[in-house]
Design a protein that fits this description.
This protein has twelve helices and no strands. By secondary structure, the protein is mainly alpha-helical. It has one domain.
Amino acid sequence: MSLQQNPRERLRAITTMLGAVGSFAVMDALLKRLSAHYGPMQLAFLRCISSLLFVLGAVQWKGIWASVRPANPLLHLVRGVLGTLMLGGFVYAVRRLNLAQTYSLFLCAPLLMTALSVPLYGDRVPARRWLAIAVGLCGVLIILQPWGAGFGSLAGTAAAALACICYALSASAVRTLGRQNTSLSMVLWFLVLAGCGSGLASLSDWRTLVGSDWIWFVAVGISGSLGQLWLTDAFRRAPASVVGPFEYTAILWAFAIDWLFWSATPSASLILGAAIVIVSGVYIILDERRLAELELALAPGSPPP
């Protein structure tokens, strides 16, 4: 029995995925707090560097430098550029919007990844998945409410949309990079390249760090590193169709954090739109799982059910 078929491994993968989502939510809340004093690109740079220090420490401690040697450096570079835009856009979005609003848009990424798999990898997407994508986009319209007041921040909405698109493209690139690179290598070079890009972009608006903020940047590094580590471990232990749906628990964290720290309660349209986006994304993930299991059962030499 393989790791991905072991029920205990799947349960552990789900647990680590939940931990990863919670860690990233804490990190994003800290970035939102810090965004009142620092620019988006400066925060993106400091987020990358603080996490990179922990990753480099782990590599040095285990003595596995050979495993992080990059293959396909050009695609790593493209992913680094996308990461720079994604982090900067996300930080700008959480500064203008609350976490729940930003997350609701960001959770459209699985829908975009499914659509992008057609031009990027020549995948065939069944009509039912295109329908799910269309339904998910209707959920986005309900969140945005272009016919009314909407978010009240067009710039924040545009930044969240940019971050979502860049994340979907970056995640799609992992499909190719993962064939020749280890998970740790992809994490390390993403942080290095996105850190360099955001650092250069932040020079014109750099602000001196306040002494009392150092503890928050350390917390960003710890939560970001733990989130990345647990996320990678979750996808290593179980298929994306098993752990992917649990990424959507992020919206629950966002609702709770907004309410506890910023006294922001979600509107009915936000809850409805987010629910539609989540249902559409989970449907696509589960449909992919069903199709993969069917292909495995029909493969020559496969054991009878």
